User: Fold this.
Amino acid sequence: MKHHSHSETERIKLFSDGFFAIIITIMVLEIHPPNDATLHALLGVLPSLLSYILSFLYLGIYWNNHHHLLHATDTITGGMLWANLHLLFWLSLIPFATSWIGRSVGGILPTVLYGIVLLMAACAYFILQSRIIMNEGKESRLAKAIGKDPKGKASLALYLLAIATSFLQPWIAYVIFAIVAILWIVPDKRLQKFFDHLDD
Assistant:
């Protein structure tokens, strides 16, 4: 079923934006200040702060890309709605995974879970992106801008590598998570050109 209404697109944008804001709020509330006013006490909460920063970057990247995808979409289908909810479900688990990895630095299971959540969120985003391209058409400017999606495929491979590495050395997995975030912070020139055109 298709909804050819601009208001439907705005509705899903507003709902998703609010969801992102709630997720970030929940995540920051999990960081508790140290009991003592000393550097040693501050170092005790440093892992939680670092995990929050990394997850905040991920959520910021998802919010930015999600905004652009919906901005490029005039028609909302039922499949897109469910794909969007699927993505938001996995993103909603980021605060839990972030809190656990921050409190259990070097722990195998928390690191594996964090990697699985990121992997599934990436898969969910790919599904949403595919639904939009399917609706917009393979010859649409969006489809051409995304192309074969090399960064998306590389991210999935790196997440799998990080999960596998977690069983051997969680610290290496942390580095891989950071590399993926940096990979997405750097804008894709083709996509940036497309989205700049949309904003004109």
Remarks:
- The longest helix spans residues 108-136.
- The mean pLDDT is 87.
- The longest strand covers residues 2-3.
